[in-house]
Amino acid sequence: MVSEALVATVMALVVTASFPFYLYGAWYILDQEVVTWDVLVHHLKYIAVGLLLTLVPVLTWMAPRFWDQLGGFAALHAFLGLQAYAMLIFALTGIVRIFQVKRQHDMYDRNAVAGAADGGAADGEDVDIDDLHEHMGAWRSRLRIGVAGYVLFWMLAWLVGMVRFFIDYVLYA
């Protein structure tokens, strides 16, 4: 049988491996002055990998063991993790609206002519998505705040989780 310490170590490594994906995804979207469809898709690819690397350990290892380990650090870890996911949901309220507007302008088809507010462009991939709807800037702000908040709370939850790991599996092993 595989020891609990080994499984905990693998889970800690998997969650830690998601960090560069979150950082790059957040940096990439925050660094863009013009967010086109390709920029958004590129960002989401990295965020999706980070989410997968975090959610698998949460759902298969952490959540099922939570009530057995309920204490100060576990509660703080769970609270910070839930805050991270709340920020992710906030980000999704922006991205859903962005997707809806993109669909209305037939911009899922890479060859479609954009229906931008200024009369469109020859290539839908090069259209600034802010030109597609009057509220696009607010939705992009939700997305940016949500992603930045997710990364911040994720980092705090990860730090508390690493302290818990060190105490439970290294210090008192």
Explain this structure.
By secondary structure, the protein is mainly alpha-helical. It has one domain (4-171). Helices cover 73% and strands 0% of the residues. Helix 1 packs antiparallel against helix 4. It is elongated, with a radius of gyration of 20 Å.
Estimated structural class: mainly alpha
Q: Give the helix level as a range of percent.
A: over 70%
Weakly predicted, low-confidence segments:
110-124
The helix/strand order is: HHHH
Count structural domains. 1
Q: Mean pLDDT, rounded to whole units? A: 83
Distance between the termini: 17 Å
Radius of gyration based on Cα positions: 20 Å
Keywords:
173 residues, mainly alpha, elongated
Summary, kept brief:
This protein has 173 residues and is mainly α. The protein has helices spanning 4-31, 37-65, 72-104, 136-171.
Q: Topology of this structure?
A:
Blueprint: H1 4-31, H2 37-65, H3 72-104, H4 136-171
Helix pairs in contact: 1-2, 1-4, 3-4
